[in-house]
Design goal:
The chain is an alpha/beta fold and 496 residues long. Helices cover 40% and strands 10% of the residues. Residues 1-20 form the signal peptide.
């Protein structure tokens, strides 16, 4: 039995209060496209940013939210959830006319969290060095004279944030409420078919907590009495029967050139192209203290992480827009080459879940209408790669920013990011036909070469052919990952 939610009642009360606040803000305009949030009938945190703009020094100005700039889109996955606005189908998320959603599969990243231990140590060491230097900071760093680190309890590291408008606990709960509203008919159908509905999470505390708060919003506060949260171990012995293939693919873990660490090499190589000028500017403003590339990068990281805790961050304004475009691209390179199209292991790892989902779609209503999985961003990138839905013609360069790229980490898998596969039944012909539609962070995204259905959806028959062909091209997971024939070859636990 999962642990209880001691704070979920408080979260519910806060969410209700924020919902009431929308009426006070309803007459205010929101940002114009492309950054208008689809949450406009919900409390809009960015409005608070405008109200708070006079509270801190804007410095280089990258932290401002304007009609043509939103810092949340340039944090490389280190900040709050944002919707996908690049390369999306026109018409929004409404179900195409004459169609209905029959089945939903959602793979979501854990909600907003504190930094990992590795990143947190980098930030804390920097702040301590600055505090102990005795420097009275000037210029863009003047705020540091009265600034404190945004966590004091080391147990908070890597866990969900629980304060501010972008808190992970609140975000998980409100996402559940929103999707309950969107898929309420499927929830009723699921309960009639399976009195005890299953949903899944990988065995990480922040992932489990995300699933629990989501469950409270989607299934109701009594979710523990009506559903089962199945936690799947993140251990190497799972083989192909896993939600976290990056932990079970042996060669991916051990391959120093093409495996997990490849992304860090690409990030570091590109980082050197834009950070030097920033270091020189900060040194000119404060001659008594010189920063390394690692330290300046940590400052940029703190912009997003502090925002998820406090709702805003003065670190964002230490930098120019161009410098944050560099940071965003560095983060894109990290994930593109670590678990996405830039590593030879990405697609074969992601095909495990894609194949299992395809089989559930073929079973249709008999398998159940709702499937929800909470994982890490390093598990979403392989799935996106296996699906081959966000594809750049050439691998991303490390010598300069590819401004026209499709792979943007902030929109592929921000904190709280979700990719939803909708199985549609459409009645435009005498014989109802089924289609697959992909919703990535509230941006409908067409599958390349398979978008001739309503709303540019993909006919299920074509989706199946495409997925099976993709599997043949990628090869056997066990073989590609250096596992023995006795290792488990596929996912077996995804069923109601």
């Amino acid at each position: 039995m999962p642990p209880t939610l001691p704070t979920v009642g408080l979260i519910f009360s806060i969410a209700s209060a924020l919902l009431a606040l929308q009426w006070a803000y309803f007459s205010q305009s929101t940002c114009e496209a492309p950054h208008q949030s689809s949450w406009d009938t919900w409390w809009h945190p960015q409005r608070m940013w405008r109200a708070a703009e006079s509270l801190y020094n804007h410095g280089q100005g990258a932290g401002a939210v304007t009609n043509d700039w939103n810092i949340l889109y340039h944090l490389g996955g280190n900040g709050p959830w944002v919707e996908k606005v690049v390369d999306v189908v026109e018409g929004g998320i409404a179900v195409p006319k004459g169609c209905e959603v029959e089945q939903v599969h959602m793979m979501s990243r854990h909600a907003e969290r504190y930094p990992t231990r590795r990143a947190g140590k980098r930030m804390k060491n920097l702040v301590e060095r600055m505090k102990q230097s005795g420097t009275v900071f000037k210029g863009d760093l003047e705020f540091m004279n009265n600034w404190d680190l945004f966590w004091t309890d080391e147990d908070s590291i890597e866990q969900l944030t629980s304060t501010g408008p972008f808190s992970g606990t609140l975000g998980s709960f409100t996402t559940g409420v929103r999707l309950r509203t969107r898929y309420h008919s499927l929830l009723s159908k699921a309960r009639s078919l399976h009195p005890n509905i299953r949903f899944w999470a990988s065995d990480s505390q922040r992932v489990i907590d995300t699933a629990r708060y989501f469950g409270a919003g989607f299934f109701g506060l009594d979710w523990q009495n009506t559903t089962t949260l199945q936690v799947i171990p993140e251990t190497a012995d799972r083989g192909g029967d896993t939600l976290t293939p990056g932990d079970t693919c042996l060669l991916y873990v051990e391959d120093q050139e093409e495996g997990h660490d490849k992304g860090y090499g690409m990030l570091n190589a590109f980082r050197a192209t834009y950070l030097n000028a920033t270091r020189q500017r900060l040194l000119k403003q404060n001659p008594g203290i010189e920063f390394t590339d690692d330290e300046v990068y940590a400052m940029q990281e703190m912009c997003g992480f502090e925002t998820t805790v406090r709702g805003t961050s003065s670190w964002c304004d230490v930098f120019t827009r161009e410098e944050f475009l560099g940071f965003e691209y560095a983060r894109d390179l990290l994930h593109y080459y670590r678990a996405g199209p830039g590593t030879k292991y990405g697609a074969v790892m992601g095909w495990l879940w894609l194949n299992a989902t395809m089989n559930l779609m073929l079973e249709g209503q008999e398998s159940g209408p709702l499937f929800d999985y909470s994982v890490h961003d390093g598990d979403i990138a392989p799935m996106i790669t296996a699906l081959d839905i966000i594809s750049d013609e050439q691998h991303l360069p490390i010598t300069h920013i590819a401004h026209s790229r499709k792979w943007r980490k902030s929109q592929v898998s921000p904190m709280g990011g979700r990719t939803i596969f909708e199985l549609l039944t459409c009645h435009a012909t005498p014989e109802p036909r089924k289609y697959v539609r992909i919703n990535i962070n509230d941006g409908i995204t067409a599958i390349p070469g398979c978008d001739q259905g309503p709303g540019r959806s993909c006919p299920l028959t074509d989706f199946v052919v495409r997925t099976k062909k993709r599997g043949e091209e990628l090869g056997d997971f066990r073989e590609k990952c250096g596992l023995g024939k006795d290792a488990r070859e596929k996912i077996t636990f995804l069923h109601q």
